[in-house]
Write a sequence for this structure.
């Protein structure tokens, strides 16, 4: 999943949010250097990604994209899902999206001294351009996908992926709503399981 979903699926727990954001930037022994709840967020991030990558509805959505975008289809669906989450935000939260995004940035800023340097470089751009809010519009995801396309080694064609979304917007929305309900249930239960297992040590 992409960053807006990871923020939402941290369930208002600040250190879990930090871990959920830096999950892709933490390797091997680095894990033990973080506070326990940040570690729990990193573990949750990885569980969310694995659940997403193997979910049959997500795979069904990617079959539409694979002929044109190949293995970049997984990155594209992650961004699509943030688009639908942002676009339908009122279904999921009573806090306005603009407020939620600013709260998220402020929470991450508190932990800037402990997060990986590589994450901080990306986070500065995220905050400056307000990626979390940007994802909720077609123009915003077009900008994100074009940026990603410029950073890929091969011709990913991701700068065109917003057009594929527009072609099948209703179908992808059906997939998103059904999948995200499963994902939210999974993430809530998984976080409790992770926290309980650490409490028992």
């Amino acid at each position: 999943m992409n960053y807006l979903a990871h923020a939402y699926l941290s369930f208002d727990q600040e250190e879990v949010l930090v871990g959920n954001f830096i999950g892709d930037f933490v390797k091997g022994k680095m894990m033990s250097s973080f506070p326990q709840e940040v570690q729990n967020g990193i573990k949750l991030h990885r569980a969310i990604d694995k659940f997403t990558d193997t979910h049959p509805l997500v795979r069904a959505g990617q079959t539409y994209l694979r002929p044109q975008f190949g293995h970049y289809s997984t990155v594209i669906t992650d961004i699509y899902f943030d688009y639908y989450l942002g676009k339908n935000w009122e279904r999921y939260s009573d806090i306005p999206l603009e407020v939620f995004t600013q709260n998220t940035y402020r929470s991450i800023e508190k932990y800037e001294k402990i997060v990986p340097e590589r994450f901080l470089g990306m986070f500065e751009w995220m905050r400056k351009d307000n990626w979390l809010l940007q994802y909720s519009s077609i123009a915003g995801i077009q900008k994100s996908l074009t940026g990603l396309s410029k950073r890929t080694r091969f011709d990913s064609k991701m700068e065109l992926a917003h057009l594929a979304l527009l072609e099948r917007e209703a179908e992808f929305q059906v997939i998103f709503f059904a999948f995200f309900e499963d994902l939210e249930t999974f993430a809530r239960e998984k976080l409790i399981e992770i926290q309980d297992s650490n409490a028992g040590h």
In short: The radius of gyration is 16 Å. The chain has a mean pLDDT of 93. The chain is about 70% helix and 0% strand.
